[in-house]
Amino acid sequence: MFRCKNCKTVDRFELMFAPDYQGSKTFQMAYNKKGEIEITVDGYKFVPDLAFMNGFAVCKYCGSIYKWEYQ
Ligand SMILES: [Zn+2]
User: Fold this and answer.
1) DSSP letters for 13-68
2) What is the pLDDT of residues 17-60, one digit of tens each?
3) CA of 43 to the centre of ligand 1 (A)
4) How many A from CA of 29 to the centre of ligand 1?
């Protein structure tokens, strides 16, 4: 999954939103047929990748923003 470059915490996928994210922050998580995590945010469904993480996800452990890499 994804690892925070700052604190090295590996997060399975606990999405946190950037402080300036404007949506309603409703999201659901499910696995698709390929076993990938599929996220639905405000009605938009996608498989999260690094670009998404570094655009929107905040590390819940250390609070770093946009600091993800693949583990
Ligand atoms: Zn972190």
Assistant:
1) S---B-TT--S---EEEEE-TTS-EEEEETTEEE---HHHHHHHBB-TTT--BS-E
2) 667 778 787 878 888 898 888 888 888 888 888 888 888 888 88
3) 27
4) 21
